Amino acid sequence: MGGTMVCWIMAVGHNESCEDYLPRKLHLCQRALAEVTEMIRTSHLVHKGLVNIQPGVYPEAAEMNDMTFGNKIALLSGDYLLGNSCAELAALRNQDLVELMSSAVRDLAEAEFIGRRDSQNNALPSIPSENRTNYALNEWTTRNVLSAGALLGKSCQGSLKLAMHDEEMQQQGYNFGKHLALAWQACLDLGPFISKDQTMPFSLCSAPVMFHIEHDPSILIEINKGLDSVQNVDYAKVYDMVITGPGIELTKQLQKEHSQRAMEVLSAFQESDARTALSNIIAAMRDF
C-alpha cells in the first residue's frame, strides 16, 4: 500500500497556483502520509492476528502459555505501530488531514463488526433477505470498503489535500484509492478458485462465495456449520459448489469494473512514469 501511495503522489503532482507551495516541504509531508498509511495498515493486520483463547480448548499448559505470549506480542506490536502513525500524523500539523485519517482508522475498526462472526471472530456471510437482489455486491462492497478501500482512498485524498488541490480533485483521489483497493481484493478472492492448487485457503466472505449464496442459498447449510468455528465447515464442499455456479465469472466482472473506474480517474492526470506504473498495476489486475 505504501508503494502505491508513493506512485500516486508522484503521478498527481501539486497545485502550482497555490502561493504557499513549497516543493520540498510538500514532498516530505506526502511521504510521511504514505508511511502513516503503511503503519496503520500493518498495525491493523497485526492486531487481527490475535487468537481468541478459549478455556479448555488447549489442554497443554505450555501451548496455552505460548499462545498467550504471542497475543501479547501482537497486541504490543500493533499498538506501537499505531501509536507511531498517530504521532507522525500529528506532526504534519494539518487538522483536516488528522480528521480524515482518523476516520479511516474508525472504518477499519467498524469492519470487524460487520455481519456474523464465529467464536474466533472469523467473518461469516450474512443471511440474505427473501429478495436477494444485489445481496452479494452490497455486502462484499461494504465489508471491503471499510476494511481496505477507505484507508487507501482517504490516503490518496489526503495527499491531494496536502498538495492544495480543490475538493473535487480530492474526491477523485478517494475514488481512485477505493476502486484500486476493491479491484485488488477481488483478485485475491479469485485466486483460490482459479488456481491449479485447489487446497488454497479462502474466505467464506469472498466475492465468489457471496455471489453463489445469492444464486443458490442452499450453500448456507454448510457455511452455517461454522457458527461456532469456521473449522467445522467443509471447505472442499463449499469450493466444489462455488466453481459450478456463476460466482467466479461475476467476480471477474466485478474486478474489471473496479479496475476500469480506477483507470478512468488516473487518466485525468498528466502522463508520467508514476502514472504509467499505476496503469500497469491496474492492467495486470484487469487481465488477471
Structural account:
By secondary structure, this protein is mainly alpha-helical. It has one domain: Farnesyl Diphosphate Synthase (Orthogonal Bundle), CATH 1.10.600. It contains eleven helices and two strands; from the N terminus they run ααααββααααααα. It has helices at 2-12, 23-48, 61-91, 95-111, 135-162, 167-194, 207-215, 220-223, 235-243, 247-266, 273-286; strands spanning 116-117, 123-124. The chain has a two-stranded antiparallel ribbon with strand order 1-2. A hairpin with a 5-residue loop joins β1 and β2 (123-124). α2 (23-48) runs antiparallel to α5, α4 runs antiparallel to α5 and α10 runs antiparallel to α11. The longest helix has 31 residues, at 61-91. The protein is globular.
Question: Could you give a quick summary of the protein structure above?
Answer:
The protein has one domain: Farnesyl Diphosphate Synthase (Orthogonal Bundle), CATH 1.10.600.
